Automatic annotation (TrEMBL):
Cellular component GO terms held in the UniProt record: cytoplasm
Taxonomic lineage of the native organism: Bacteria, Pseudomonadati, Pseudomonadota, Betaproteobacteria, Burkholderiales
Free-text function comment from the UniProt entry: Catalyzes the conversion of uracil and 5-phospho-alpha-D-ribose 1-diphosphate (PRPP) to UMP and diphosphate.
Gene name tied to this protein: upp
Record-given protein name: Uracil phosphoribosyltransferase
Enzyme Commission (EC) number: 2.4.2.9
Length: 216
């Protein structure tokens, strides 16, 4: 795990397997099917890392030999919340890792003129004492990410209950996000160079939603 001195709450998961798979995803000739599979595989690897510090407790169980206070994850079931639509490409992988998780959805699209998020759907499980993993492969301007955290916070979710999982981020987007939500941890596979004039991440991987779903 690597950090950037500019962004104290950004964690870059530079595991060789994650980086190798991401390079294949970036290649423009990678098929929809492979892109989707790689995203799922990377999400499994990232999900393993970001759940490292989940709060633990013990539960008494009977093994065939003795009674044991066995370690289990504390609190309510996790909530996985993809930011639609590209976030779905990551929530599938997270659900394989945590099959009993609750799943919320936050639907926002980027207004092509203003580049600001426009909400069209919010469905969430109850929020008290629950860890939320928000996911969106790309943090470009940071506006959708900020908006999604705002949605959770308005429902009483605290900074510490939120983990934001992305694949690729632009420094511009992380700056915006960090200014809005400095205490929320963000995990990415890569912090790329910059945004271009169309607000695409460079080098990036193009439009993540289109590449996951095979649309144009
Ligand atoms: N959204 C994407 O899917 N790709 C980008 O590069 C920027 C935003």
């Amino acid at each position: 795990m690597r950090q950037d001195p500019r962004f104290p709450n950004l964690f870059i998961l530079n595991h060789p397997l994650i980086q190798h798979k991401l390079s294949h995803m970036r290649a423009k000739d990678t098929s929809t099917r492979t892109f989707r599979e790689l995203l799922k595989e990377i999400t499994l690897l990232m999900g393993y890392e970001i759940t490292r510090d989940l709060p633990m407790t013990t539960r008494e169980i009977e093994t065939p030999l003795v009674t044991l206070d066995a370690p289990v994850i504390a609190g309510k079931k996790l909530a996985i919340v993809p930011i639609l639509r590209a976030g779905i490409g990551m929530s599938d992988g997270l659900l394989e890792l945590v099959p009993s998780a609750r799943v919320g959805h936050i639907g926002v699209f980027r207004d092509p003129e203003t580049h600001l998020p426009v909400e069209y759907l919010v469905r969430l499980p109850d929020t008290a004492d629950r860890i939320f993993i928000l996911c969106d492969p790309m943090v470009a301007t940071g506006n959708s990410a900020v908006y999604a955290v705002d949605v959770l916070k308005k429902r009483g979710v605290s900074d510490e209950q939120i983990l934001f999982l992305a694949l690729v981020a632009a420094p511009e987007g992380i700056t915006v996000f960090q200014n809005a939500h400095p205490k929320v941890k963000v995990f990415v596979a890569s912090l790329d160079s910059h945004l271009n004039d169309h607000m695409y991440i460079v080098p990036g991987l193009g439009d993540a939603g289109d590449r996951i779903f095979g649309t144009k």
